[in-house]
């Protein structure tokens, strides 16, 4: 029995990102009860029906932290849209877990095939890209050792 | 980018009963701050049922000058097996001016006439509900004067 009207949601594909990363810098297990690694975001592209541009080289980081049952995705970088607007993207989400004693390898097989489930946020100035501030997003991603593909959907 | 398709699967609804609202004077840059207490509530659905723990938290929204409201709610939900789970329900709402006027007067408004979407994160212990800690969940809200009903979907 429903508590009330089931608000229907739909996903609308808005754009895709391809990211490239620098080498791994493991921080090791920390007092926050997880094992974090840092990768510089060295560049990338953005393409799709609602946004086109590039990931500004060396503008941020991908710094996931893992524990036994999940990897928590945390990252942040800048996009330069085709009209030169600079947009901040904050990535968040989950991937598969791994034993904390295992070496950090972003290309473990578990990370392939859409294993990253994401809910990114964006910060854009007033203007044609301000819709990014007013929309909830989800994403799916494939992560390999030195690059990733991410598909972004608006939750409508 | 084959394989990065996504869909949503209905998981549960939460009715949150409110315990009073406050709205504070414009702060810096015209942003107003609010508070809505959480009095209790009910959870029902295929993946979770239980209740909202009475008086376990509230929402501290930001009312932006452009009419967008950003939500930042923290309270406790209790599954029917007694597991207590902290929900941090973040999201946003915006609507055309005539709908905003009705909402501010707490008149009934159809949820399809505004955009009110949330992306909660959960602090959950290991056990039967720990999927909440590694699943991207998004929701749509149906707002009423005394309560809101959130319909939640998992990203699959």
Describe this protein's structure:
The complex is a heterodimer of chains A (156) and B (156). Chain A is globular. With 156 residues, chain A is mostly beta strands. Chain A has no helices and 12 strands. By secondary structure, chain B is mostly beta strands. Chain B has one helix at residues 97-104; strands spanning 8-23, 32-44, 50-52, 57-59, 62-63, 69-79, 84-94, 115-118, 121-123, 137-143, 147-155. In chain B, strands 1, 2, 3, 4, 5, 6, 7, 8, 9, 10 and 11 form an 11-stranded antiparallel beta sheet that branches. The longest helix of chain B is centred in the middle third of the chain and has 8 residues, at 97-104. The interface between A and B is large, with 36 and 38 residues.
Outline of the structure:
The complex is a heterodimer of chains A (156) and B (156). With 156 residues, chain A is mainly β.
Set down the secondary structure blueprint.
The complex is a heterodimer of chains A (156) and B (156).
Chain A: E1 11-21, E2 25-29, E3 35-47, E4 53-55, E5 60-62, E6 65-66, E7 71-81, E8 86-95, E9 116-118, E10 121-123, E11 137-143, E12 147-155
Antiparallel strand pairs in A: 1-3, 1-12, 2-3, 3-4, 3-5, 3-6, 4-7, 5-7, 6-7, 7-8, 8-9, 8-10, 9-11, 11-12
Chain B: E1 8-23, E2 32-44, E3 50-52, E4 57-59, E5 62-63, E6 69-79, E7 84-94, H1 97-104, E8 115-118, E9 121-123, E10 137-143, E11 147-155
Antiparallel strand pairs in B: 1-2, 1-11, 2-3, 2-4, 2-5, 3-6, 4-6, 5-6, 6-7, 7-8, 7-9, 8-10, 10-11
